[in-house]
């Protein structure tokens, strides 16, 4: 059994630390030296010996700098003799640009998959491990030289739902028609009803959202969405469910990004009582507010390396 | 402008003939000699000169024989000097096995994409052109050496809906939560309401389907689904909408497969008044029944080569 | 030494069972779940853990369904983490279409080699292991990412020849000029004379076959051919040797396919007294007749994994 | 002769505009729609028809955002049917990290080359065109599927030197031993003497630079370097040449980056009288100062497409 | 129709000159500058403009120097923008090492195929064109990025046979069992009988060759073999046919190599009256002797580019 | 820890023997059977079992025969199941043709890198290990499927310099401007001054070399160059340093090729007192003269496999 060694990009050090605090002493803490230059370039040097070790590298494609840093460190580990390379991408940025709807649109989910597919192989192969992708199919966007893995945070969602429900009945609801299937599946796992919305296009950019489930009346509604970016869709859906009679709205999301002052907009709306998200995106950790609970995916990642890759 | 020449696998000759009858005289009719042997092998020989021509090759991955025939003819065209190769796959079989839900499941949509991606390139490149895929992302399952194109049959669906509605108001409905997004989009294009279903798992394999839209009462419901395989989901959804008060159910589907005596089961159920499908699968053409109207995708394909690949 | 696990396609289960019965308990029995659907699609799920194991997968390219099943299972094993993959193809179908003689002929031996070459690599690499190929060169038709291996059934042929000769002198004979070299080599190994035939083209499709060896007079002739497909060439050669004075004709072949009622045609001809073949093709096992003896290649395959891959 | 169409990343629009102003009306102005989102993602859509056109795409790898934008737009042009793709990278950022000196250093020049090499091919092939690379060999760092081109700005340097010299004799000088070869070659072209420096390491990080040419006494020294990043090496060399008796120091550089307030540091030093650079990096254009003259590489790029790619 | 330009390696200039003398003025004469250095290195520079031209490059893999020169010039043409590249290899050296018979043998025919397969592609693709290969399958040893073509010198053999026969009946004969198939086919084309030999292994290296055709008595025997290397097999076969009563032996061969003083050994044996070969190997041209007639393959090559690549 | 086995091409057996004499008994001596044929072909057979072993293969690209032998043996080791392959190329021939200066020049350093990059991968990957490359960047000319390693002979140079200096002060000098950087670095390591030359082009091919360092007067000058090919540049530089007042010239070089009677020319010039080189090129070993000391790189290579590939 070869030694595992873990690295992370600059903004994902927190997740590396959490995993090391659980996995210690079996995993080695990988050291990288990084310097950023005034001209926009960066210097990276791997200071740990990676030769013949299984490298686990954590980083999200959350912006251009992190994306290229992840690519560069991965390449460095390969060139210096890593036996195996598992790139853990807790939040796969660009996953909402997953297909071209109009001529000429550039499908970032594909170009990012292509990027990581271009890495030379390690002896035991390269893997990309992603969590709660916006679209399942992205798993198969990678070229055949790399093995993609999709981890589902179902356990997190179920535990969060039970925590929010506090024993009372609730309805699991989606923010748009695209997530209907997933919410249906989760609702069935939780043995609760599901609620969807229908987004009617009024004219041009203007839309009206209607909750099209009859049974939210006087019930707590727990909305699940894979990610909250600016919170716009979430607030529209929440308003629709309240209008349909819901007594209270709580929210579960895997990826809490809250871009562009998103969290405050949600809080200020007064529509939502509580949000539970994970730490797949570093932004979630920067918010200190009672309304938000952040749970770590550390164990989900660690479990994958221990047991999840084997059949059940 | 190089000469276009069109070939088809054995079971898709009808579509080649239709396209030639429209495109004549500009496209050349490609001739292949095919012999099937008692030991399960096949002999293929391209009899037309393909050198420096743009080859359009039509065939669906509807079963193993057609799949390999498509692969073999494609390879033959490449080896004999085709300038460009466009493989038109009107129905991309295996598109419902588009992701692994359980450990060890083999994702056929990926392995089929890999198959066609392994073809050597032509001078002007290889394309795969598909119609109304079950899942959009399949477009991006192909390796980067081949250019995938996804044609949408929106015009067909709209025209079929108007034909079925005969001027009366109707609701556009889906057969399951997974298609909710697409039906929402089509309903908005048609300026009609949308209806969804919620499939509640009762125990193990048993499920109950509920229409969760309030406004089908006394209205015609037109169900759209990308494909009808055996018709099972369709009949469950139809029953749910009728139970919710719909006055009548008509159906539009792109791919009419009707496997395992599927058409008769639908007809015998008495739940549905009319079905409109396309000829993307040869099975649809074998059914002669007033209840079924089959429209050809010939023009959709031809339009792609004429104008659809350019921006609007 | 990693654990070996063996899988087979549906029609090659018998060979997997034979190998397991010999190799037990060291090799693990790989379990796959397969379902065939009425629309021509298939569902495959690998139920055994293949992660970090050496997978041996058996299946012949005997028809389109088996070919794609072999490809799909191979892909599944790779995606689920197999350490190494050895695809054993006891009978490489299409091996007689091994080169284009006329413009436009599609070389199936090449397209099938390309198919298996497109599989992503495993950590310890992919191999294809074939037995008594119709043409040696096919070994080198595969792309460089896969390692092909050619096993020769020389021991089988020699033992079969001695069994048929029952201690009496005999001549080893070929069915056509293309196998002359191989028969020459086997005859030298057995220290017996060799006999060839010359096929003279009379007109168009008509040919006359002449034995062009003087020494078959009153001797037993044992014909060796790599495969019997429909038996046509075999019967023509047998008649030529009898006409040249042979006292009796027996036959050895590696691949007994007997397509299109081939076995009965041979038996009914009365020209041949005995046939010995192997079980590389499942068809041979379906024939129950005293005239046919089927020997298994199980040990040949197992020997390869034990010792044959090392130098002597 | 196919139509040429030109695109640029956001920060290189100025160079596209210059080239269009010269090449008009023969080249088409490519239109891209770009939106930057608060979460760090970007939306790109190609609005011009690129199908069967020769695409020229301009952008430097000057920071992470521009690098990925260049990669994404290139991919979009390929996917939408560009006949040929020439990526012009006027300043190849990271070119100073062109080899690993210590264990574990990540060679950015290689990983950037790998990035662009992973783009799928166009019918007529992909090219990368670079100008005055820091190290010649970088041309060959690209994988074999892409054709790299290195343009030399020799004409620019010669004209700038004559402009600075104003007819008086001068010495061409280098800033470090690594550029000695290049300066030697340019000096010979200009028929002037060359001067080098020797950098002696005193202790740890401390170094002393000595001009080791006897003939700068009372002469104008024109220093040439491929790039000025922060200006540190330049100022040390200038001081050394002045100490050796030079009457005046002027500077020519291809890439004027002037990072981290570099230009002001140079100006404030008072060591240098004049700098001439090109517009390969957008930073040079932001400086408005009599001491700096910026010449465009527009004609050098255009000449390549007209004549430079052919033999002389 | 793009301009064709032809190059050759140093030892194949004669064949380039012959082709140019026929094809003039339509093909351009490609100029290369070559210098050989005392340390074993070589300098090559393409002096003609190859950009957007169809390059035809002639050279045989007759020794290590020519092989690498062919590879290097091919690469140079690609890098300098050739539109298409056809590498004509009149004699594919190493074609007799076309498979491993014993463990550890290195299959040169495969490694040479791999070598040329590693060349980057041109816009219209790379081809390798070979003549009368020792083994047909070698055509398919190339990786899928290159298109191999096999030209048959059947017309040459037929004309040579008629020239040698001078109107008298003759038998077409082979030198070993491996060529039996080919000789059978040629004999049928010429409407003459065929004769084979059987090589009996006596002990270890010692073999005895017997003609096993009854009908050579008092007839002229024309032996055909694809190549004469040292002439050993040829002389053994000739002796066997003479012993079987042949009145006279003449020889046709495509590739006349005559290595190690081979021609004189044949001549001195007195067994053979005349040899006709082609100029696929430069060695044949160095022999000036009435016994040898050398015919050029210039027209065969030119015909390929004119018409042979199209179907008949 | 897998078994290491070492092979060498014919002309590098001496280096294999030296390494085995140090590494014994842990490394296995690999046996190859090689036969050269009169027609220019070669037969290679690997006689040792390489399956699942780490193969170290030594050979320089010193001429065409050695280059292809290295390629062929490497391929044979891969095909026969080597676990890992490290190709040690002590002298990378063609390294001076490392970039195209004029249109049409073929960059041999790139085509040779491409050659070795085309080898199929082994389970643990392929490496190329080179020593004191003429240009650092060559390390990155290889395609991404192979891992290049550059070993520096700094220790050898330092020890040789101390041995030559015999405790007296000396100046480290370069033979041309291109090596200035390297000599500067070595001089700093040795705490001695550095001297450079400036090569002034007089007219056409004629050049005059001037030492441009003031401090060689009455001092011993030790010239370092990476290779001595014919010795021309070396002698010009030596003359320049003597003219500048140097008391004595000694020389250190990594690669002693001495092509075209180079050693005698140097000796006869009388300019140089002593040369120390390594045994990276077999030519150095053929010279028996007191003026030349040859040190082996055996330990440098062995150290790499023991410790150099790990971080310090």
TrEMBL record, chains A, B, C, D, E, F:
EC number of this enzyme: 2.7.6.1
Claim: ATP-binding is one of the keywords in the record: yes
Broad EC category: transferase
Keyword annotations: ATP-binding, Kinase, Nucleotide biosynthesis, Nucleotide-binding, Transferase
UniProt-listed SUPFAM superfamilies: PRTase-like
Reaction equation(s) it catalyzes: D-ribose 5-phosphate + ATP = 5-phospho-alpha-D-ribose 1-diphosphate + AMP + H(+)
A molecular function GO annotation: ribose phosphate diphosphokinase activity
Domain Ribose-phosphate pyrophosphokinase N-terminal: 6-117
Membrane keyword on record: no
PANTHER family: RIBOSE-PHOSPHATE DIPHOSPHOKINASE FAMILY MEMBER (PTHR10210), RIBOSE-PHOSPHATE PYROPHOSPHOKINASE 2 (PTHR10210:SF32)
Protein name as annotated: ribose-phosphate diphosphokinase
């Amino acid at each position: 059994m070869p030694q595992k060694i873990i690295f992370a990009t600059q903004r994902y050090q927190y997740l590396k630390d959490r995993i090391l605090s659980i996995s210690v002493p079996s995993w080695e803490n990988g050291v990288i030296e990084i310097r950023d230059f005034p001209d926009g370039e960066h210097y990276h040097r791997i200071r740990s010996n990676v030769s013949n070790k299984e490298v686990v590298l954590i980083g999200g494609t959350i912006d251009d700098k992190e994306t290229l840093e992840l690519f560069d460190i991965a390449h460095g580990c390969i060139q210096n003799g890593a036996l195996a390379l598992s790139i853990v991408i807790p939040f796969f940025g660009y996953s909402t640009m997953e297909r071209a709807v109009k001529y000429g649109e550039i499908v970032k989910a594909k170009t990012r998959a292509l990027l990581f597919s271009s890495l030379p192989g390690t002896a035991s192969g390269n893997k990309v491990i992603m969590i709660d992708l916006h679209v399942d199919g992205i798993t198969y966007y990678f070229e055949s030289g790399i093995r993609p893995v999709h981890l589902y945070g179902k356990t997190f969602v179920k535990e969060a739902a039970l925590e929010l429900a506090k024993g009372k009945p609730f309805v699991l609801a989606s923010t748009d028609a695209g997530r209907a299937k997933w919410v249906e599946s989760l609702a069935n796992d939780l043995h609760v009803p599901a609620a969807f919305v229908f987004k009617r296009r009024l004219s041009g950019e203007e839309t009206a959202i209607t909750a099209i489930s009859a049974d939210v009346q006087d019930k707590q509604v727990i909305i699940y969405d894979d990610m909250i970016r600016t919170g716009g869709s979430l607030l529209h859906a929440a308003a629709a469910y309240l209008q349909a009679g819901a007594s209270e709205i709580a929210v579960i999301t895997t990826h809490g990004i809250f871009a562009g002052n998103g969290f405050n907009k949600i809080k200020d709306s007064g529509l939502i009582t509580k949000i539970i998200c994970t730490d797949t995106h570093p932004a979630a950790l920067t918010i200190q507010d009672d309304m938000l609970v952040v749970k770590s995916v550390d164990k989900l990642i660690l479990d994958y390396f221990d047991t999840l890759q084997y059949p059940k």
